[in-house]
Predict the structure.
Amino acid sequence: MHAKYVFSLESQDRKRDLPGKIIIAQRETETPVQVLQKLFGYLLFFRPRLLMDTNLHDEYIPFVPDLVQLDYQLQPALWVECGETNPTRLNKLAVKVHEAEIWIVRHSREEADALIRLMDKANSRRDRYKFVVLDAEMIEEVSTMTHGRNSVTWYHGSFETPLMQFDYNGMWFEAEFEVLNY
């Protein structure tokens, strides 16, 4: 299934000067939940020069990141995986984008734990990756409310006390999330 989701964005958070809208194309292999992982990854990690689904045109980095921020030398400073990923890809990223923070966004603790078990089996590097584990019930509810055009008003999102507050298509949400180090 191919779909395109338009998210009209408004920020009530002084620290996040969000664009007026973003468009997220659902790839053939992606689920609507993965689209929402990308949306919330974008909102939580928002900063100037944050790019979505950008081909880096670098022969040494053969991957397209879900979210990336490039430094002034056009090297990844932040790399965020929101869709399906595997330990092989993550291990290669640890080497190829060695200066970047690598984050993985998952919609439930079970999904994060399953990937962590695979990473353990693959002897993935430790102290190299961080996870954002979203609230599964919140994602499920937001998923049922998602249409081709959506409205998001962002009020707060913080890693210090992992919490996000937002209005999604007229419904208020206040959801905690979890941050894991691997």
User: Anything to note?
Assistant: Helices lie at 32-45, 87-96, 109-121, 136-144. DSSP finds four helices and eleven strands in the chain. Residues 58 and 180 are 30 Å apart (CA to CA). The chain has a mean pLDDT of 95.
